[in-house]
Amino acid sequence: MKITNHLPTPLNGWTLQYEFANGQTFTDRWNGNYTQSGPFGRDVRVTNTPSNGTIPANGGSMDGIGFNAQYDNFTSAKPPNFRVNNRRCATG
Q1: Tell me: the pLDDT tens digits for 18-76?
Q2: What domains are defined for the chain?
Q3: Which of 18, 24, 30, 75 has its Cβ near the most Cβ atoms within 10 Å?
């Protein structure tokens, strides 16, 4: 995943939040501190590590956070409702 900062000021510390739609659970994750909570582990929260906590202003980005997950359902939908520092963001 990639987080791009379109604000005129740097992000000094970030939290990415999203939801798993089909009961997925992490098998591996990297470049962030991950927690999973809520019913069926639906709510995911990722915070920065010391090495990637600042995202420059005006289009600066941080790339390379990611995960592998498993699920017990027949389909695995793309997670909805992405937010960075409590602001809804676009996904691509």
Answers
A1: 888 777 888 899 999 999 998 878 899 999 999 999 999 999 999 989 888 887 766 66
A2: 2-82 (2.60.40.290)
A3: 24
